[in-house]
Amino acid sequence: MSMMRTGALRHRVILESATKTGDGGGGSMIVWEQVVSLWVAIKPLSGRELLSAGQYSSRLTHQITLRYIPQVLPEMRFRKGNRIFAIKAVLDVEEKRRWLRVLCEEREL
């Protein structure tokens, strides 16, 4: 993994963090705020379709690789246009703080 080429990081994504804000009616809602814009490599891992309650839904998983930054946490997400990648796990490749491998599930907006 230490030999990843810079050219492989060809997708521009936004790392987002969730915050709770008041909704004006006594409740709260989650608002996603931009943390940083990054260049990453996106690799599809698997996909499947599910039939639940008479409706089809799909589940796509991806591996996102980026240069190491300590801010990436499992409660965050990546956004690329209208595509959302919910972070499931964050791995420090070879524990050298050079690359992160992030396992994500793609969701609809």
Descriptive report:
With 109 residues, the chain is mainly β. It has one domain (7-107): Thrombin, subunit H (Beta Barrel). It has no helices and six strands. The chain has strands at residues 11-22, 28-52, 55-67, 77-80, 83-92, 99-107. It has a six-stranded antiparallel barrel. A hairpin with a 2-residue loop joins strand 2 (28-52) and strand 3 (55-67). 9% of the residues are buried.
Short description:
Helix content is 0%, strand content 67%. The protein has 109 residues and is mainly beta.
Identify the notable features of this structure and list them briefly:
six-stranded antiparallel barrel; 6 strands; globular; about 110 residues; mainly beta; Thrombin, subunit H
Classification by helices and strands = mainly beta
- List low-pLDDT spans: none
Our measurement of the CA-to-CA distance between the termini, rounded to an integer number of angstroms, reads 32 Å
* CATH topology label: Thrombin, subunit H
Order of helices and strands: EEEEEE
Count of discrete alpha- or pi-helical segments spanning 4 or more residues: 0
